[in-house]
Design goal:
Elements: H1 2-17, H2 26-41, H3 50-68
């Protein structure tokens, strides 16, 4: 489940950040962060308490910034 979710998230994020200067657009940045939160929210709650989940959201956001920032 986690691998499929990760693949879906990467594919969706790739679509969102393919726009030129996606970091400059407040709506695009918000859409990327929202997509990260929505997809990670699909993970089972039991192994991911809120503080760990928030940390994972930040890790994915940092990855996206480093991977897709032009």
């Amino acid at each position: 489940m986690a691998q499929a979710l990760a693949r879906e998230l990467i594919d969706r994020l790739h679509d969102l950040v393919s726009a030129i200067d996606w970091l400059r657009g407040r709506q695009t940045r918000a859409a990327v962060l929202s997509e990260i939160r929505v997809k990670l929210n699909e993970l089972p709650e039991a192994p991911y308490p809120e503080d760990l989940w928030n940390g994972k959201v930040e890790q994915v956001w940092d990855f996206v910034l480093h991977r897709y920032a032009a």
